[in-house]
Design a protein that fits this description.
The chain is of the alpha/beta class. Helix content is about 35%, strand content about 25%. The chain folds into 2 domains: about 160 residues, Rossmann fold, CATH 3.40.50; about 100 residues, Hypothetical Protein, Haloacid Dehalogenase-like Hydrolase, Chain: A, domain 2, CATH 3.30.1240. α2 packs parallel to α12. The model has no long low-confidence stretch (mean pLDDT about 95).
Length: about 260
């Protein structure tokens, strides 16, 4: 079997920690010959802590970061798949953020690159990933390198409307959706967790029918619907629960252990 785990709100508890019980269950799953893939909207750098804790390098795991914009084979460090944003959209995204008073960031190695004002949501992104925020004077000029993702931030009631506006303007070239009520994920076209997972599985001889995908956020819906068994956490958004085959216990109650015990021999 292939066990695919979102991180925040799924693998980790409310303290952003993997409990000892969940960690041991996941490691034991790999030692019994099953594959584990961490699939997150986080940048790759922000996933390394959990890669190390779960011993993914030693046990042949994978990191699917940036909502599928990059996939890394932990054993070799090799980038299995990558897709980046068209560079010409960066000025237009910046203009949208300024016009609508959104936060706008992207990522460069271990830094978060800030193009607008700082807000509490960007602070959350910085803390959970262990990445410093680097404010740049001219975001459009600074971002002359390939990026896998931009992230906009806004109050939840505004973010929902902004997603609609962004999809109207950029839907032909970008994938745009919320991961949290206040996070707007801006990805290359046809990039989401399910599409990238499908590419990865086919490249390593694994099959959709043998996948169990677990998540709690809006950006997990695609892989939950794609999976052989789609699992939502008890703490998941209602739309996520509606897309799932099975609802497990919450992330604070070792819900992943329940999934492993129920579905993996």
């Amino acid at each position: 079997m292939v066990l695919v785990l979102d991180i925040d709100g799924t693998l980790t508890n409310s303290k952003k920690e993997i409990t000892e019980r969940t960690k041991n269950a996941v490691i034991d799953t790999m030692k019994r010959g099953h594959k584990v893939i961490l699939a997150s909207g986080r940048p790759t750098y922000g996933m390394h802590r959990y890669e190390k804790e779960l011993e993914l390098k030693e046990n042949g795991g994978f990191l699917l970061s940036f909502n599928g914009g990059r996939i890394v084979d932990c054993a070799s460090g090799r980038v299995v798949y990558q897709k980046t944003l068209p560079k010409q959209v960066i000025p237009r995204l910046y203009d949208f953020a300024i016009d609508n008073d959104c936060g706008l960031i992207t990522y460069e190695n271990e830094n978060i690159i800030l193009g607008t004002r700082m807000d509490d949501y960007i602070g959350i992104e910085s803390r959970i990933n262990g990445m410093e925020v680097k404010k740049v004077e001219n975001f459009v000029e600074y971002v002359d390198f390939d990026v896998n993702k931009c992230l906009m931030t806004a109050l939840p009631e505004k973010a929902e409307k902004y997603v609609e506006l962004l999809q109207e303007e950029f839907g032909d070239i970008l994938s745009i959706y919320r991961s949290e009520p206040f996070f707007i994920e801006i990805m290359p076209k046809n990039i989401d967790k399910a599409k990238s997972l499908d590419r990865m599985l086919s490249s390593v001889g694994l099959y959709r029918e043998n996948t169990i995908c677990c998540g709690d956020g809006y950006n997990d819906i695609s892989m939950i619907q794609y999976a052989g068994i789609g699992v939502a956490m008890e703490n998941a958004q209602e739309k996520v629960k509606d897309s799932a085959d099975f609802i497990t216990r919450s992330n604070d109650m070792d819900g992943i252990v329940v999934v492993i015990d129920k579905f993996i021999e």
